[in-house]
Structures are given as C-alpha cells and as structure tokens.
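Before going further, learn to read the protein records used in this course. The integers have meaning only within a learned vocabulary of local backbone shapes. To see the layout at work, look at the sequence and tokens printed below.
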Amino acid sequence: MPSDSVLRIVWIYPDLLSTYGDQGNVLVLEQRAQRRGIDTETIHVRSSDPVPESGDVYLIGGGEDRPQILAAQRLRKDGGLHRAIAGGASMLAVCAGYQIMGSTFGGEEGQPVDGIGLIDIASTRGPARAVGELVAEVDAALGLPTLTGFENHMGVTRLGPGVRPLSRTVKGTGNGDGYEGCYAGHVVGTYLHGPALARNPALADLLLAWRVGQLAPLDDSRYEALRQERLATVLAD
C-alpha cells in the first residue's frame, strides 16, 4: 500500500491518446479500489505537463498517428514515466500507447518512429487493419480469466527477451503472431479497447495488487455471468 494510504492513478496525455473510451480504464480502477476501501487520487496529465513520478498506477490510451508521434517525443524528453516504473509503479498501455512503450513503431507512412524504450518491444505497420472482437487466453502465470475486447489497429508487435506475451489469441489479430499484448515487470501492453478494464476487471485487480498487495475479493458474480454470455456470443460468430 502507498505510504500515505492514497492510491494515485495517473492518466497520461488524455488530450492526445484517449480513443474508444480508454478513459474508462481510469474509472474502473477508481471504482474497484474504492469498493475495497482504498482512497484514490486521479491525476490527468496533459501533454504540456510533466509526468509525476509519485503515481501508483499509470494508464495511457490509443490514438491516431500524429498524436502518437507527439506523445512519444514528449514522454522521451520528460523521463518521468521511466522513473515511476523503475520505482515500482504499475502500468497499462493500450494500442498506440502500447506501441509507444517500445523501441520503435510505425509512423504515418509506415516509417519507423522512436518509441520511449520502456520495455523491449518493437512495432511496425502490418499489411491490413485488424478490426473486430478479440478473445485471448492469458498467460497462466498471471492467473487471469480469458480476455475480451475490441481491436482497431494496423500494428504488428514483436517482443524481445524478457518480455512475455500477455495472452494467446483465440479470435482476432493481437500482436500479429498468435499472441496478444505483453507484460514485463509491472507493465502491461495490449491492443484491447472496450475499455479493456471494464471488460476484464481481473486485469484491473492485477494492476492494483501489484501496487497495494493482496486485495479483498469482490462479488462480481452478476457481472461474470454477463461476461461469459458475451464471450460465448463472440466465439459463436
């Protein structure tokens, strides 16, 4: 638990990267922490502001090519996110934000653009846009149920040594190699929208637990029944 008993959630660059309802990830984290009696403080960091190093969970969303490039440039120059993760914070990076975390990603014309090098991945532009529902079985080491979400991207992402796939794709494209997303330390990258944490609350709990320790269980039985119904529908299509 943070030393002052307040969980700080940092939402990075909502003015540049916040498509497909990715800000909903912030709301889910707030709600699941507060239901357990954990006080939260949410900090919205615009691209003109420095990234604070005192956060506990960092979130970054998806966006278009030009805002993605600008976000990468500013995060590289700022350096605050690197220091926060080195200090033990956890992070969820979605779609364009996921690609930014690596060494390179594809620019507006597919040209390589420097990422921020937070984790050892590299992304390029794929041959076709991946659009639609995505279902993936999570790495057993994480102990999470099947992930679902919506993808809309042209990225192909390759993982380097020390970075593990978050999940194996059952339906959809994901990274483009049979896997979806990645994790390294307490950093998770994914192409899942929906928003991701609303459709996969166990993933939200993992991000929280990495920072605050063991969490009290919540009664998600009603939600889980709806989630399973939705999953069955997606797989049947």
User: Anything to note?
Assistant: The mean pLDDT is 95. The first helix runs from residue 24 to 34. The helical segments are 24-34, 65-78, 80-86, 96-100, 196-199, 201-212, 221-236. The first strand starts at residue 6 and ends at 12.
